[in-house]
Amino acid sequence: QVQLVESGGGSVQPGGSLRLSCAASGRLFVMHDMHWYRQVPGKQREWIASISGGGIANYDDSKKGRFTISRDNAKNTVYLQLNSLKSEDTAVYYCGASNPRNGARYWGQGTQVTVSS
CA 75, CA 102: separation in Å to the nearest integer? Predict the structure, then answer.
């Protein structure tokens, strides 16, 4: 199966930037679609963006322009670039993997992003 580990979170001021990384195990990484979600305590997990094995990206409309998803299949890693961060972006950010062939889904344990003055 796929194992995912997020990193790159931290505390930044409004307007700052972060790059989150998600390292995946296994040689089948290229066959999986990859996703980024975020979650605030007490609220539903919110979808941010997805990227196919071939590099085709899709975004939630509200995130388009500020957030950028990318992947490096040679490194088994997916990234999320966060720009122009706002306090309301504070959340735990999770990466996920899905296999379009069998429907299997995997989640990392998340990385905390805190935006405050």
Answer: 24
Between residues 25 and 95, the one the model is more confident about: 95
Q: pLDDT digits over 41-98, tens only?
A: 999 999 999 999 999 999 999 888 999 999 998 899 999 999 999 999 999 999 999 9
Pairing of strands 10-12, 111-115: parallel
Longest dimension (CA), the chain: 45
CB 94 within 8 A of CB 36: yes
Relative to beta strand 57-59, strand 111-115 is unpaired
Q: How far is CA 31 from CA 1, 76, 103, in A?
A: 12, 11, 12
- DSSP result, 73-111: GGGTEEEEEE-S--GGG-EEEEEEEE-TTT--EEE---E
- Any long-range contacts for 46-54 (C-beta under 8 Å, 24+ apart)? 46/91, 48/80, 48/93, 49/80, 51/78
Helices (H) and strands (E) in the chain, counts: 0, 11
